[in-house]
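notes to self, project folder thing:

trying the whole complex as one job this time. last attempt i did each chain seperately and stitching them together was a nightmare. two parts in total, labels are on each line so i dont mix them up again. if this works i'll redo the older ones the same way
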Amino acid sequence: MSSRSNQLTRNLEMTMEAPLLQILLNGLLIGGIYAMASIGVTLIWGVMNFINFASGQTVMFGMYVTLVTTTALGIDPLIGVIASTILLFPLGLLIEKSVISPIISSPRLHQLVVSLALGLMIENAALMLWGGEIMVMPKVGSMEYLSQVLDVGPLRMTPAKALPLPAAILLTIALHYFLTRTRTGLGIRAVAQNSYAANLMGIDINRAYFLTWGVGLSFMGLAGGLLMLFQPVYPAVGWEFILISFMAVTMGGAGSYLGSLVGAELIGVIESLSGFFLIPAIRQVIYLTIFILVLFVRPQGLFPTKEVG
Amino acid sequence: MLGVYAAVILTSIVPFMLRDSPFFLDVMIKIALYAFLGMAWNITAGYTGLIAFHHVALFGIGAYTSTLLQVLYGVNPWIGMLLGAFLSASIAAAFIYPAVKLKGLFLALATLAFATGLQVFLMNWSIVIETGAYPKYIGGAVGMFVPLTADSLVDFQWHYTKLPYCYIMLGLLFLQLLFVRKLMRSKIGYFLLSIREDEVAAAHAGIDVVKYKLVSMAIAGFFSAIAGTFMAQYILFVEPQSTMSLNFMFEVSLLTIMGGLGTLAGPLLGSLIYIPVSTVLRVLLGGTRFSGVALIILGVALIVMTIALPTGLYAQVTKIIHKWRIG
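result (full assembly):
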């Protein structure tokens, strides 16, 4: 697993002029990727108090959808990303209606089991559909520009890798706007704060859950799409993101979007720094250890917003 | 009870009857192994209510300990097994100690992180056993081979038959079931159940919640490591990728849940259903592309069951038998 996750940061190119700055930049960019993967998790967790163990696999699915639509339809990869975002929305709705809705009030273990089972199903379905070989996005259309290494001042980066961070920030801002200024958004927040009271106020909780799941999955589709632009895909790649997403969300404070963004960036920077100063292969162990320590010491994270259990 | 004795006697005859077919023996061994591990997971999740997923790591610790001791110091695998089991139990307890106050999901995440971390660590950690111009490594992602010896019980290896492995695994499973049965009828078992039901109430009743969580984890670690050593001696090869994969962990957990969490027969029932199905599917479909079909079916079955039969198959079966008896 570590050799594969190395590919996430395998282009750590350090220039002689500003090695530390470069490492920080890489860390921030990686953090952006993690943030993208975490937004869907935060949404579903915050609104429905449901921990989506299938989130990594959904991101993986989004990656495959992007790849397949691009290669099969011969369209530009960026359009493939948009396709993935759009296509995963109805999938989210479908999953919510069929699988999530019946168990929304079941004990935590059941929810965990179901989402785990769902994740495993998606993973093995992907294995069946597309095989286990590692696949990369071919260099067509925008990929030619996106995959080259650019020199921006003393720093070096690949445009494809630089996309997720601004996307994550924009998405967080958009989400914030949606949740605080629009009627539907306020309704969803009301459900998140107190579903019983929201119900009494006339808000349709089931509809809120329904939409949330759809939106959450489409975010994961977007994340997967952006990832596909530089990350090779294989069915098991989902596991890399699940742990990191949960780590980011937990460290940032469950339910807080800004928190998960900050948490994701923290993980990215820690990973990048430890990759430079310590043995790169141990990078994962480092942030996993930090995660465990955070859980032991401050499980509510940096910006705790609600009781999660 | 009579039915159980009959089952045990039957079970001990079956391997002998199948002695000429390594394939069926392998299936039986797998059933027993998964049931054994499932029970280990069941102790923490089913009886104590701790949602934890690091048993594969403990499994790996058992496998690696006994193998390393064999390779480096020539320690007998049976002794290595016991040492590994105690080490694993200690590590399990040590890990849980700071985590006792973690609620449900967070414990699951912490244990997942632990399992993944250990797997990654073992993939990158190798030991030089011969220095010099061409240093010889063992361990790391490449894995370690168990030193081959002639067939013997003492050395825990057989190369031309799987029958002894089968009996050993069944024996281990039987002993484990006896132990767990005894445990759950004792005071300790009662305390574990109370922790599962309501931790706060249990603490108020004077039960040392921390201590019994540690006990539960230690026992699970002990069993997991024994299974690990068995696997190491059976396959004669350990590597982090397959020995300690999360997929393996989830297979074990999910089949236990399917069989019935918190019951004695649950893991065995789940294993009896899942392993043959998965083997048959793998044989029929073949190739790596379809290696996960059994998991998809397991996933579907589980989702359906969680919605329709939340208590697991064992509870359902006993209900049906009960109705049939009274009928």
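what i see at first glance: Confidence is low (pLDDT under 50) at residues 7-17 of chain A.
need to look closer tmrw
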